[in-house]
User: What shape does this take?
Amino acid sequence: MKILILGCKGQFGRCLNDQLLSTDHELFFTSREQIDIADFAATKNQILDIAPDVVINATAYTAVDKAEEDRLTADLINHLAVENIANICNLVDCWLIHVSTDYVFDGTSDVPYKEDDQTNPQGVYGETKLKGEWAIQSSCCKYIIIRTAWVFSQYGNNFLKTMLRLGSERDELSIVGDQIGCPTYAQDIAKAIVTILPQLNSQDGLIGVYHYCGDTACSWFEFAGEIFNQLDNYGAFIIPTLESVTTDKYPTLAKRPRFSVLDNSHVYEKFGIFSSNWKQGIASSLKSIKR
Assistant: This one.
């Protein structure tokens, strides 16, 4: 298959690079320097020229708090540019694989969210990502939307990397303990997509939204605890003392979901994909960072 990856320099794009390079697909990795999705006309011309079988959109505006003050840019990247890409995919008659977020939900549930549960984003980031989903669904293109959560890896800026930086600077860290979610190793998301690719044209009824995240739920405090527990195995690093605090003690511009655990059963039933083992993902990330 001829596959175009948009956003190859970001965290998820780099993981896609790691996982796809060992396949037999014809790959086109592009960053903003090659295809700037904010330039709708140029994006259309470039995608038409490549004529891919699949477009994987690894681009996104992910600065959750900054989005509250920069709505126009967040909407441009997460919604309007996605709408343009989806319309181009419909024109080319190719698949679009797009990654979305748990932030499309409000976090008031007490049970894991299924794909058809009521959405109700609480901030600009979640709102623009949901509009991007709607635009894809309205475009008539063939699509797979993967909602995920708490994404981390050895690349880019993420919670794991932030903990490593802060842990090297401070003796004590206060971490939110009353927000519950499922950490997801970005390499596992990329592996899931590699599993999906050969099935796209082999069976019907695959178009839709799928949830994919970590295999067990935890709080940010517990997530941090696991990171430092594993880091302690390496030695030569002073592990900070962690304190669990409530959300009101850590105010942010954007409201975070209290509970954003996703139900992964649908993606397993359709593609045979198991949930991300996020504790193993931490181990793999730390090993890569150490190298």
Summary: The longest strand covers residues 95-101.
